Amino acid sequence: MAEGHERHDHDEGFHGHEEGGSASVWGLVFSGAALAVGLIMSFILGPSIFSNILLLASMVVSGYSIVVSGVKSLLHGKVSIDLLITVAAVGASLIGHLEEGVAVVLLFNLAERLENYAGEKARHAIEELVQLRPEVAVVRRNGVEVDVPVGEVMPGEVFVLRPGARVPLDGEVSDGESSVDQSAITGESVPVAKAIGDDVYAGTINVDGFIAVRATTMAEESTLSRILHLVEEAEESKSPTEAYVDRFSRWYTPAVIAAALIVATVPPLLLGQPLIDWVYRSMVMLVVACPCALAISTPVAMVSAIASASKNGVLVKGSIHIEELSRAKVVAFDKTGTLTRGELEVSEVRGAEPNEVLRCAAALEAKSEHPIGEAIVERAQKENVAGGEPTGFKTYPGRGVQAQLGENTICVGNPRLFAELGIANGGTLKPEDAGKTVILVAKDQAIIGSLTLTDKVRPEASAAIAALKARGLRVEMLTGDNEETAREIAGRLGVDGYRAGLLPEEKVAAVDSLRSLGGVVMVGDGVNDAPALAKADVGIAMGAMGSDVALETADIALMQDRLDRVPYAVDLSRATMRRIRENITLSVVVKLGVALLALPGFVTLWIAVAVGDMGLSLVVILNALRLSRIRPERA
């Protein structure tokens, strides 16, 4: 819990209970036993000095810390919950309801203990992140493996990982192969294969191989440390709803005390009613009015949501972003690197003999480092098509290549090259090829077919977009690519609209114009989309694991390249705001109902605490903890 408060440190107008202020567990046990024995003695033998001593002992043990905390807050000019409980308990005792005064402080202390226990469950995911950081690393120094405190390992040093070892620092594999469980950081349950040159991240687990890793960061600069720092900051930030509750607290408690004074004095003075009865009812009102459940209704839900999101690979950098996301009406996606992988693939091979077309193209592109050539070779390998050994290469930069393959002259290139070489391509290009990259293949000056290449679309993109649309959100695509390519990708994915040929500053303008439809969420790769991410109501960065830019620019960072986390984040944000509304409504209705029943004397002090404070607070917390059940839908 935050320093200085045992309750959730939300506002000192509501809370004054200091760290360690509530009675110990053994103190509660003693108080409960003393209260039970005292009540039994009073019931069997009638009230006596012995039963009263037991009741007073119970009150002192369980109520001492409450009185001290309440008085301290009053001396600082603040009216806390502890002061309200103190006034109610002492007042009840003075008017002859000693056993109820004891019950008030005992039940309030029990509520504190149970509330703290339940509230800590929402922060458990953050504690798990802290526990992910190993204290030592096995480092190779002077040819010997030595245990070194993680904080003393310098970038460039090599540490070794055996099966089952947790990665102490971010680094790059320098030797060996293994699978690494990254679920603690990304939420992805399937271990990821790692080989020489691959990155590994602090807090992940080496599964089944021996690898050596060259450290790339200090311990405090690792991905895990940055995530932990950002999540802790997120817990401290406040959403507009929380800020409203804070403002509400400034006048709520004084108003309650004023109302209790009116109830205690007006009926006896003006209507001749019994003073003791109305003082007792005013004590009940004070207890019922304790705003515990109302005060924690928002922060406990936000903390639960942020912690749950981090366990599922979604880093939310503040509760305000959860509230903004819940109100969003439009989700705008960048194309390259977000909806697509930014990598070409051969989507179609045309010709009377497709395998021959692919064989000829792959043979000439076998040694190419151009993305088009690499995509053609990858398709040939996937189809198990062997290319052969061409000779007599003639390269046409930016257009294609020509070579001798066996007894035939093969030409592979774009339509512009074929036009230059006078090779007719009539009927080869189709209207649907607009926006795609088409590579023609000719054998001895006659076209034998073509290959169509497109940007690789993320496999989960269509499902994620459909999921967002099913949730009532409009989905737009913003891209710097040309009109034809944008139209083709937009049609494949089923977005509601697209805008092509946008420069970074034009993406910012596009986001601004979409605001006419409602709140805008921008999803991008966190680097070239940084201005648009900053302009949107909520910026979501893809694949932020290990990326400083993504972690710094976005409001929400997806720790891996999975678009299914976007509808998950929307679901979580909406569920969080529903829980908050439920909690606030329940708190107000229950407290108002109990207060109204207290006026005619239908509610006793101990019932007011058990139902209106302790019970209601627990219901609010447990309702918020249900957010951890929300999981991403697998595409």
Q: What does this entry look like structurally?
A:
The chain is an alpha+beta fold and 635 residues long. Among the domains are: 64 residues, Calcium-transporting ATPase, cytoplasmic transduction domain A, CATH 2.70.150; 139 residues, Rossmann fold, CATH 3.40.50.1000; 117 residues, Calcium-transporting ATPase, cytoplasmic domain N. It contains 21 helices and 22 strands. The strands form five sheets. Strands 10-22-21-20-11-18-19 form a seven-stranded mixed β-sheet, sandwiched between helices. Helix 8 packs antiparallel against helix 9, helix 11 packs across helix 20 and helix 15 runs parallel beside helix 20. The longest helix has 34 residues.
What attributes characterize this protein structure?
21 helices; disordered N terminus; seven-stranded mixed β-sheet; Calcium-transporting ATPase, cytoplasmic transduction domain A; Calcium-transporting ATPase, cytoplasmic domain N; alpha+beta; six-stranded antiparallel β-sheet; single chain; Rossmann fold; 635 residues
